[in-house]
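Example 4.3 (complexes with small molecules)
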Amino acid sequence: MKAMLLEAPGRPFTFKNVPDPVPGPGEAVAKVLACGAGLTVHHARAGRLKLDYPRILGHEITAEIVETGASVTNVRKGDGVTAYFYLSCGECRWCRLDRETLCDNFGGYVGREVDGGYAEYIKLPARSFVRIPEGLDWRKHPAEAGVVCDAIATPLKVTRKARLAPTDTVAVFGAGGGLGIHMVQVARWAHARKVIAVDVMASKLEACVTAGADATVDASSGRVTEQLMALTGGRGIDVAIDFVSSQATLEAAITALGKGGRLVTLGGHGGTFSANPGEMLRKEVELLGSRYASREEVAESLELVARGALWPVVTEKVPLAEAEAVHERLDKGAVTGRAALCVAK
Ligand SMILES: [Zn+2]
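Answer. The structure with zinc ion bound is encoded below.
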């Protein structure tokens, strides 16, 4: 099969023929129709994450099961599937609690510890495949169906972590990116009172308004906290969701929280930040981390898209052979919403 290989950290991809994958017991092989290209994948491409090389990246797939190994019962030939990004065990306490991203026997990620979707075929443990429900035409919309498993599932979980209520004013930091724009959409779907998009590019902020943002904050001009306070009449925001999670964005977000405010961080690059415990006490502020989504939240996200409650924002669809160009644009922060690679029809 043809595959886009990453052969060394930070190197360009090489487009090569590699052996077709063959499913062992408990595994299945699927033909890839499309695969999302987001920042999580780009961090691996850029050499910021540890990988074994060569590696085929990509986890936001739409694919069709073509072959199953022995004792596979959850999928069969012809099924339209996407992937659950985390290689969790399914048996430990956290997995049983539907909190699989905290799995005690965590095996890594699709497209990092095992080969992913930047190829014509993908082989995974069968339980890593999630069936796409009836009602979502995955053959017609493979790029959109593929990105749901992360770009919508991750924001869906955040609404629960933050206990997002219809009385809440929400600010999304990094709102124009692949997760951010879907967070805007999901917060709007969850009936947030007001959704404020924070980003640094005017064109991205426009896309956020189209996705459902009520107001925008251009962070490139600085004074983010002041702008957020002005937009809330001095009350402060109820929920801040930070997809950038740099020291600057986290501190701006915390300072802008009102009484009872919740901050959700999705990680960032590992720097530290300051929070004033006196202010945390005075306002009963909560600082929360949220990591990807559960398998059930992936299934729920697919169901929401299947019944038309949400629709993914995929702004760039390019052939697999042009993966390198897409990653150059991701590197510059030039992609609004999600990009996807179209692998097959
Ligand atoms: Zn587990």
